Amino acid sequence: MITQKEMTSYYEDIAPKLTSFLLANGCGYDQASDIVQETFVRLWKMRDQLTEEDSVSGLVFRIAKNLRIDAFRKNKREVLVDEYEDSTVPTVEDNLDSDQDEQYIRNCIVKALGELPEDLRVCYTMFNLGQMSIKDISASLNISESLVKVRIHRAKEKLKVSLAYLKENL
Questions:
Q1: Per-residue b/e over 62-95, b at no fewer than 16 CB within 10 Å?
Q2: Which of 42, 59, 96, 155 keeps 20 to 30 A from 145, CA to CA?
């Protein structure tokens, strides 16, 4: 059983990582926040069933992933609009100040993450943004630990290629 104090600790530790994971996987900030809240509500409702051996981090990410899929299914008939449409990536030739540099880099990273195949992006963001262990990711996605490692490696290689021009041009 999880106590209220433990739940607060889990929320403070996991919620920012979970939000980053959802943002990197195509959710808008409002939707990501709603999913994080709903995830922890569901975790709280099942607190009596959890044991110390259960991986709360893996469970939270699995719940959030399922909620995101459910939300997508409910809204699949709506016309999707790219949230980053207004934040076009400026060219390197533009004279950018430090805030624009940061926004440029952020937009490039978001674009590069968005171009990754979903299976690679999910493993990569769970590991790097969600700071989950390979074991927890494996349990959360029902795949082997070696497959998680392969997907993370492939995602890193694809991101290196996609973002190589940043290093050369900044």
A1: bbbbebbeeeeeeeeeeeeeeeeeeeeeeeeeee
A2: 42
User: pLDDT by residue (tens digit) across 35-80?
Assistant: 999 999 999 898 888 876 677 888 898 899 889 888 877 765 554 4
Contact status, residue 15 vs residue 36, Cβ threshold 8 Å = yes
Largest Cα–Cα separation, the chain: 58
User: CA–CA separation, 113 vs 132, rounded Å?
Assistant: 18
- The tokens 């449409």 sit on which residue? 85
| Cβ neighbours, 10 Å, residue 108 | 16
Q: pTM for this structure?
A: 0.59
Terminal C-alpha separation, the chain = 51
Question: Could you tell me the two tokens for 158?
Answer: 């694809």
Residue written as tokens 């060219």?
91
φ, ψ for residue 132, nearest 5 deg: -90, 155
